[in-house]
Write a structure and sequence with these properties.
This protein has 307 residues and is an alpha/beta fold. It has helices at residues 2-26, 85-88, 98-105, 121-131, 145-149, 179-187, 189-197, 210-238, 254-262, 288-306; strands spanning 35-37, 43-45, 50-52, 59-61, 78-83, 110-115, 138-143, 163-165, 170-172, 244-248, 266-269.
Length: 307
């Protein structure tokens, strides 16, 4: 009986080792870079990491500043690009990043990206405050409506998202969520594969009709609209906005766009109304084609702003 259990354990160990090798060779899960928090409270990545996206079709790289992508060869005539997972853009190769595409269209300028999934509007402004030390001539901040609502602690508190408490005017910097568990998952690929395939908590199916979801979303936005406007006014008082251009995703709120314009932001509102193929089939992130169309619209408007 003792030998039987020994053999079972041995077989399990062999299966785990073989499974780990197969998952790594086939890139069945994406490599995820490890995060840290810098001295300014900004979450970024440990420098000089690299890995494969799911499927292994392309690699991502983290530069020595702790951001995804390549740093510019020169910081003269610098334009900084700040954003969340859309700009971080792990799912596409480096040549599909906004910095690369914009550089091709605006060769007299240099572009640097600083992006990470989960960046809120207020964290983007905190990042821009630190990156202003590089003396950029313009900073592009890519965002959508949700980034504003997530920025206000008074709307819905999130411990892992940087927010501002509009009652105390205090910034609550985001904390790393389950860093020890994530470190184990990202290093043990087989375990991460099963974690993705069989999550501990299954999402509850939403049986609401689209019309009901839209109605609920509008009610939520109406309820919290004044707090978003208060957030925008806070931004005017606490950050430099004159050399900042907000790049709004398609179908963003016109009220938010106009309020941002009124306090001095430059604004570019992306338009995908005549082209429905910007995104992946089962994902809202932009494909390489979507990034190309985005860069074309941004460069057209940005050239006019810089004149």
């Amino acid at each position: 009986m003792k030998n039987f259990f020994k053999n079972i354990i041995l077989l399990l160990l062999i299966a785990v080792v073989v499974g780990e090798v197969v998952v790594r060779l086939t890139h069945a899960v994406a490599d995820i870079p490890q995060r840290t928090i810098d001295e300014h409270g900004i979450q970024k990545y440990f420098p000089n990491q690299e890995g494969y996206w799911k499927g292994g079709a392309h690699k991502w790289t983290v530069n020595n500043s702790g951001w995804v992508g390549e740093l510019p060869k020169s910081y003269d005539s610098l334009i900084i690009i700040i954003g969340d997972s859309f700009i971080e853009n792990f799912m596409n190769p480096n040549e599909c990043h906004q910095s690369v595409l914009l550089k091709k269209k605006m060769t007299n300028y240099n572009f640097m990206e600083a992006a990470r999934s989960g960046v809120s509007f207020i964290e983007a402004m905190e990042m821009s405050k630190q990156l202003d030390t590089l003396n950029p001539i313009q900073t592009l901040i890519y965002l959508n409506d949700k980034d504003f609502y997530e920025s206000a602690y008074n709307i819905e508190p999130h411990s892992d998202i940087t927010q501002v408490d509009l009652k105390t005017n205090k910034i609550n910097y985001g904390e790393l969520k389950s860093p020890a568990l994530k470190k184990i998952l990202y290093k043990w690929k087989l375990l991460y594969y099963f974690y993705n395939r069989f999550p501990l908590q299954q999402p509850k199916p939403n049986k609401m009709l689209k019309e009901e979801i839209d109605k609920e979303l509008k009610a939520y936005e109406l309820k919290n609209r004044e707090k978003v406007f208060q957030l925008i006014n806070y931004t005017k008082k606490n950050y430099t906005v004159t050399n900042k251009t907000l790049v709004f995703h398609p179908n963003s709120s016109k009220e938010i766009i106009n309020r941002c314009k009124s306090i001095g932001f430059n604004v570019i509102a992306l338009d995908s109304s005549n082209d429905k193929t910007w995104t992946f089939e089962h994902d809202s992130h932009w494909t390489c084609y979507g990034h190309e169309r985005t860069a074309q619209q941004v460069s057209d408007k940005l050239i006019a702003i810089l004149k």
